[in-house]
């Protein structure tokens, strides 16, 4: 009998007393993803689960998804992939994403969720660090051939024995060829065990991995479903990249499948792709990052498509401005739900019946009555009610530590297990959270997180660069963009801004991590104790951006 959470030598689990409490309270239902899909398929085999409009258009029923997951699970087992093995999954919004992750869930192998934008440097790290046994890719997507990337990574990472391709496999193995007649799974995962590793946006040199259990994640799904009104009649449009924690779980595709609802996959989130899908499929709910929510709001005014089925638009991943939030209901005719979440756990929503003022001015309140929220000063002392400070949290679906990161965990969590979110927030009298800023060294580029240190390390590798500091700069569309302040080596030949960007891109990084702007300086402003003052750099670039904008008017 297991009485704790994620019992694994790789990641700190929930202490026994907390695990017991979360079970007794009914948050942890003792379900796994594998069973969950089986039960839905038995209850309503012919109901449509996944709509993938790409290509000839596919509609998989719950029965079909269940069978496909079983067949792929058997094929993976036959290839020697089993419980606890890591499998890096880098798929766009295609039906196979669900076939693959449910097959892995069933055998207890752990998907490592990469984003389609990730390139050589990130994928090499995920595969090497997790000692991945397999890597799952599309053939070509958005003009990029993932098979070539896989060939390179496979040559470099000795544990990586299998590359599975959704589509034309080239020198690798087609997913369709990797299936077998369903078998009984010898050592199926238990609810308290790990289900997958999610990525953190992070603030450190290399991205950290987030270990989530079946029990804790499934709670975040049904908790979200209740708050967002998702039931078996819902139709969820997945417009953001499916692997991201927001569209995966808030309430996302997995929440929708938990409810027995229908998931519609949008290959791209732009209105020209999404609006026809909303009309054709009767989409009731979807989630967007703030820049896309703005684009949709504007496009809705002149679209010929009928969007009247849409009841709820979730917006999160980055701060949604009050002005933009106010425009959602008039433009799209649906209820806005702000969502402030993190792959590490805690998710907050404004409620559907909150007053409009609360919906447009706050980022919501936690899913669970047992989500513990502390707002503290720099010394970890609790602040008086209503004051702005660092958000710490602990609860039934928030991790107690990153995967294989004891050193980092020692500072990322308090001694009693609170996660330091790095967000600076305050609480309203109604208990709603308002995000006021950020203490972590990260740039939030319209929901895509960029860890300053990661980019700084890459730029420092340039032979002409002596020092670098990456900071955010304000941007009307994305909220923030990245600006790299560079000090060149004495006597180095001049380097152009474009050359620095090219250098970063050629190191094989996701495009969203390439600095938007590069400024050359001879020294950095310093803080009192002689560290680089990023605060001053942010103020300087913000002033420059404002002056340039003023000059245009
Ligand atoms: P990650 O830890 O990579 O999953 O990113 C989660 C982070 O995204 C949070 O800690 C916040 O910094 C940011 N974030 C997510 N949603 C919001 C929101 N609605 N408003 C402001 N920041 C947000
Ligand atoms: O930004 C995030 O990581 C995020 C935003 C909204 C998230 O993980 C979530 C909801 O679950």
Largest sheet: 9 strands, mixed
Rg calculated over all Cα atoms: 23 Å
Query: What share of the residues does DSSP label as strand, in percent?
Result: 15-25%
Shape: globular
CATH architecture of the domain at 33-51 and 61-214: 3-Layer(aba) Sandwich
- Adjacency order of strands in the biggest sheet: 2-1-13-12-14-15-16-17-18
Annotation keywords:
553 residues, alpha/beta, Rossmann fold, GMP Synthetase, Chain A, domain 3, 9-stranded mixed beta sheet, 5-stranded parallel beta sheet, 17 helices, binds adenosine monophosphate, binds 2,3-dihydroxy-benzoic acid
Molecular structure report:
This protein is 33% helix and 24% strand. It is of the alpha/beta class and 553 residues long. Among the domains are: 33-51 and 61-214, Rossmann fold; 442-552, GMP Synthetase, Chain A, domain 3 (2-Layer Sandwich), CATH 3.30.300. The longest helix has 19 residues, at 534-552. The chain is globular, with a radius of gyration of 23 Å. The protein starts with 15 loop residues before the first helix and ends with a helix. The mean pLDDT is 97.
């Amino acid at each position: 009998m297991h009485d704790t959470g994620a019992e694994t030598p790789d990641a700190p689990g929930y202490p026994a007393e907390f695990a017991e409490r979360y079970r007794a309270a009914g948050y942890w239902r003792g379900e796994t993803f594998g069973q969950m899909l089986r039960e839905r398929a038995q209850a309503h085999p012919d109901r449509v689960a996944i709509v993938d409009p790409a290509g000839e258009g596919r509609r998989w029923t719950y029965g079909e998804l269940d069978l496909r997951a079983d067949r792929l699970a058997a094929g993976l087992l036959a290839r020697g992939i089993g419980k606890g093995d890591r499998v890096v999954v880098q798929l766009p919004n295609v039906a196979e994403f669900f076939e693959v992750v449910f097959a892995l869930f069933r055998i207890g192998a752990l998907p490592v969720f990469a984003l389609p934008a990730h390139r050589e440097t990130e994928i090499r790290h995920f595969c090497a660090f997790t000692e991945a046994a397999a890597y799952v890719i599309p053939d070509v997507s958005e003009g990029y051939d993932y098979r070539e990337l896989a060939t390179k990574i496979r040559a470099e990472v000795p544990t990586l024995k299998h590359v599975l391709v959704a589509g034309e496999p080239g020198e690798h193995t087609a997913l369709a060829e990797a299936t077998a007649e369903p078998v009984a799974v010898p050592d199926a995962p238990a609810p308290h065990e790990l289900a997958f590793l999610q990525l953190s946006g992070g603030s450190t040199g290399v991205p950290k991995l987030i270990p989530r259990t079946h029990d804790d994640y499934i709670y975040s799904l049904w908790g979200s479903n209740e708050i967002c009104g998702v039931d078996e009649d819902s139709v969820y449009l997945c417009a953001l990249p499916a692997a991201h924690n927001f569209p995966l779980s808030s309430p996302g595709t997995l929440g929708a499948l938990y409810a027995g609802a229908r998931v519609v996959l949008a290959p791209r989130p732009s209105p020209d792709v999404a609006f026809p899908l909303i009309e054709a499929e009767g989409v009731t709910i979807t989630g967007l990052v703030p820049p896309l929510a703005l684009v949709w709001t504007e496009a809705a005014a002149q679209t010929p498509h009928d969007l009247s089925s849409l009841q709820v638009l979730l917006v999160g991943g980055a701060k949604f401005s009050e002005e933009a939030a106010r425009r959602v209901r008039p433009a799209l005719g649906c209820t806005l739900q702000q969502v402030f979440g993190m792959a590490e756990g805690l998710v907050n929503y404004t409620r559907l019946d909150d007053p409009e003022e609360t919906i447009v001015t706050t980022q919501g309140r936690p899913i669970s009555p047992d989500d513990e929220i502390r707002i503290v000063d720099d010394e970890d002392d609790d602040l008086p009610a209503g004051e702005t400070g660092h958000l710490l949290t602990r609860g039934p679906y928030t991790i107690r530590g990153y995967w294989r990161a004891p050193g980092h965990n020692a500072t990322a969590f308090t001694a009693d297990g609170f996660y330091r979110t790095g967000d600076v927030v305050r609480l309203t009298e109604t208990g709603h959270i308002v995000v006021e800023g950020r203490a972590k060294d990260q740039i939030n580029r319209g929901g895509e997180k960029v860890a300053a240190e990661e980019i700084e390390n890459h730029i420092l590798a340039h032979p002409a660069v002596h020092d670098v500091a990456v900071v955010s700069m304000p941007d009307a569309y994305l909220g923030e963009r990245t600006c790299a302040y560079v000090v060149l080596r004495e006597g180095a030949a001049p380097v152009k801004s474009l050359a620095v960007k090219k250098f970063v891109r050629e190191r094989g990084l996701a495009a969203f991590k390439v600095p938007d702007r590069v400024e050359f300086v001879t020294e950095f402003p310093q803080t009192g104790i002689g560290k680089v003052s990023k605060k001053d750099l942010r103020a300087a670039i913000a002033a420059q951006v404002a002056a340039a904008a003023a000059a245009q008017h």
